[in-house]
Amino acid sequence: MYALISCPGLDNKEMEVNGKDELMQPLLKSSDSVAVNISQPNGLNHNGDKKVKTVMFKIRGIECASCSNSIESMVGKLSGVVSVMVSPLEGQAVVRYIPDLINAKTIKETVKDTGFEVDDFPDQDISVCRLRIKGMACTSCSESVERALLMVEGVKKAVVGLALEEAKVHFDPNVTDSDRIIEAVEDAGFGADLISSGSDVNKVHLKIEGINSPEDLTVIKSSLETLEGVNHVDMDLEGHKVTISYDPDITGPRSLIQCIRDAGSGTHFYQASFYIPPRRRETERQHEIQMYRNQFWWSCLFSVPVFIFSMVLPMLPPYGNWLDYKIHNMLMVGMLLRWILCTPVQFIIGQSFIVSWFLDLLFRFYVGSYHALRRRSANMDVLVALGTNAAYFYSLYIVIKAFTSDTFVGEDFFETSAMLISFILLGKYLEVVAKGKTSDALAKLTDLAPETACLLTLDGDGNVISETEISTQLLQRNDVIKIVPGAKVPVDGVVINGQSHVNESMITGEARPIAKRPGDKVIGGTMNENGCLLVKATHVGPETALSQIVQLVEAAQLARAPVQKLADQISRFFVPTVVLAAFLTWLGWFVLGQAGIFPKSWIPEDMDAFELALQFGISVLVVACPCALGLATPTAVMVATGKGASQGVLIKGGNALEKAHKVNTVVFDKTGTLTVGRPAVVSAKLFPGFSMEELCDMTVAAEVNSEHPMAKAVLEHAKKLRQNHGSPPEHVPDVVDFEVHPGAGVGGKVGDRRVLVGNKRLMRSFNVPIGPEIENYISETEQLARTCVLVAIDGRVAGAFAVTDPVKPEAERVVSYLHSMGISSIMVTGDNWATATAIAKQVGIQKVFAETDPLGKADKIKDLQLKGATVAMVGDGINDSPALVAADVGMAIGAGTDVAIEAADIVLIKNNLEDVITAIDLSRKTIYRIRLNYVWALGYNILGMPIAAGVLFPFTGIRLPPWLAGACMAASSISVVCSSLLLQSYKKPLHFGG
């Protein structure tokens, strides 16, 4: 059975069909995030004080009314249950409950306790939340977080992005919630903060003035909750702030502010202003950078003297002689100073040193390694803890031994511990700074929208009464805004008055300004060039194309590319292998030294065999850090997707990015893809037996219901032609039995006459005879690269229209460039063979499949795939959707239909074919960069581990001290991130001027 549950994690607006053809709306629709809301309006119960949810489920084993009564009695006694209805005939139960007091899981278990079986809750009621994850250092960490999330009951899907430091979790709100999910992350040893949930889609933050008592806040909250369209109200009592979730189709920010003002009465006057919460991501990043910088400097404050006392002054007699002064027995001044200075670095440096530190932050690497070992995984913290502890506690043993013995001689390694931690902190600081730059392109996109807008108030006749400058965040749907020359468009909308040219390069990358007239759409964030425009807002807040692009890119950055599986597989056994290698290195050198197999001259004067072996072991531990390996893929994907978005190419995740680099065959649709997509009729032909009026009237009646661009061109031409041959009828006759024949045309009955409008294939399928005269006209038309649209009335061809669709100016160069890249080009179209062949010849495509229906296009792609080709499909129409899904990589032209954009892997925002090359070339550059990152990451380990293990020491005397091994480890992560950042300099291989 299915459960229908109101899901607070999703906006009810997603369930409505609202403006399907409006700008860019479907980019982020999620097929796996569907909810049905059957709760009362605003989610309130009959008392209006608590949110109520409804759950339906199947109960098996009900045999009579007595069974249903017992279930109703048991469940009805539960605190928080509002009502229970059980149908004994259908075996269904409907329970209304208050989620603040009880959850659906408890209700289900109560029914089970009565002795009946209850089906599992359905997966369609899914909420989504995004979390900021703190403390992840490598791929092993992200996998640990992912496993911890998936172990939470009710979590259906979890994706963790290491470079983005975020997690996206799909969960059943009946079973768990975001608080429990955060607890699971923290229990795994990481920090977690809630970034957003599905209910954050339309939310406004307001600061209230005039609050004198808690009763004022209660009055305001009650007023807001009774306002139609308000879903949820959160009050901040201390800060006098309120956060409101609302339905943008019903209300908006200004209405909410007015509601707060109206709530005042008598001496109580309330004012509300827009409040912008600080950007958490940027704030946290700056805090993290500052934290690591401070930690590094504090660490240096202690580590540098330790290094001088152990490595510099002893080499400069007599300046260092005082360090050898004995305090008690063999305990010397230098040893005591090194111990005192090293201890804060080992146990305190790592978090706040100046004021106070929390217990879980006190031992940075210890806490991390404890949680890693507890969850049976190992990460960088384990290696650092083992390496520094081995050095520190052995040195502490030396101190104690020297203090208690008057003959003992030993060398401490305090400088190893202190310097190692200092270099690790330096590496983390530089890594965080570099990682912050990987999302620079995305940050630039988010900053495109202007902060203010000029709102117009109009009277009933459309005359401007007043102009008000307000925050862009306060704009509501259907507002009319004025955009002067040089100003940015604040939100998506439609021009209702004025003419201008708008520079959309910041969104689409198109350098040439686009002419805008009444009826044209404008995109938020673009620049108005010359004229003044009056625009009616259609999409505001998170619905705008700019917000959709940002959300799409963020989702893409969170998704893992398949190439990252290599790092994931390596990370599972990498750290345990390193620990084992370090132990064997120490054991090997120690045993060989004790057995006298290598000469004692190899051992430095201030060491013995045990100390030499220990240094080699520690060096192996710290040089083999897995951080760089985990950063190799996500940092490159982050930079590439952000850079692609800034250039007009939206790549939906690492999977699409990786597939695109393998493409060796590109299949193009014709109309709207290779051609401009705005067909025009260039001539019309009337055949004997029919009048021109008759031909035009029947054509207009049949084509008025078709959305095909070619049909619209024929319709407009037929209307003009009818006006030239007398007055057209007042009303277009209705069509009954209207049918669309994909790839062929349309048909229906106009009055008592059967009308068909389409190509030759449509005529043959209905057995309409095509005589020699008609064949000759079709042949002549198709040789001119025109499409012949035939009109048949009552089984006879009455006339024909010659339609042409100009080829895009860049098409020929794009096909030629693809050929130079080793990629073959193919055309698949529903148009006739002659027209398709002529267009293909014009652009340089050798292979053509014509007169193909939508499913046939998908079949052609599957045939190519069976022959070993990796296929990219480029299309723009609804009829291209099956082929876009069937292809290895679907590329939708951004000016195309919503369905095509939704089905595609890559969206080309501009209506320009050059971005096909950009998408493929960018993916190739990115995959090359990822592989190079792996070379950097693994190269350090492959070269560093043998050197750290002492392979070169017997022959050259070269060894890698632990502190230097730590520097190499930090360098590997920094080099990988910097390598990914080089993608920021990516340039398009082709660029066509205006």
UniProtKB/TrEMBL annotation:
GO process annotations (BP): plant-type hypersensitive response
Mode of membrane association: Multi-pass membrane protein; Peripheral membrane protein
Entry keywords, A to Z: ATP-binding, Copper, Copper transport, Ion transport, Membrane, Metal-binding, Nucleotide-binding, Repeat, Translocase, Transmembrane, Transmembrane helix, Transport
Gene3D superfamilies to which the protein is assigned, alphabetical: 3.30.70.100, Calcium-transporting ATPase, cytoplasmic domain N, Calcium-transporting ATPase, cytoplasmic transduction domain A, HAD superfamily/HAD-like
EC number: 7.2.2.8
Enzyme class: translocase
Location in the cell: Membrane
GO cellular component annotations of the record: membrane
PROSITE patterns noted in UniProt: ATPASE_E1_E2, HMA_1, HMA_2
Parts of the chain that traverse the membrane: 296-316, 336-359, 380-400, 573-592, 612-633, 934-957, 963-983
InterPro entries linked: ATPase_P-typ_cyto_dom_N (IPR023299), ATPase_P-typ_P_site (IPR018303), ATPase_P-typ_TM_dom_sf (IPR023298), ATPase_P-typ_transduc_dom_A_sf (IPR008250), ATPase_P-type_domA (IPR059000), HAD-like_sf (IPR036412), HAD_sf (IPR023214), Heavy-metal-associated_CS (IPR017969)
GO molecular function terms attached to this record: ATP binding; ATP hydrolysis activity; copper ion binding; P-type monovalent copper transporter activity
Keyword Secreted among UniProt keywords: no
Catalyses which reaction(s): Cu(+)(in) + ATP + H2O = Cu(+)(out) + ADP + phosphate + H(+)
Similarity section: Belongs to the cation transport ATPase (P-type) (TC 3.A.3) family. Type IB subfamily.
NCBIfam families reported in the protein's UniProt record: ATPase-IB_hvy, ATPase_P-type, copper ion binding protein
The protein's name in its UniProt record: P-type Cu(+) transporter
Organism: Rhododendron griersonianum
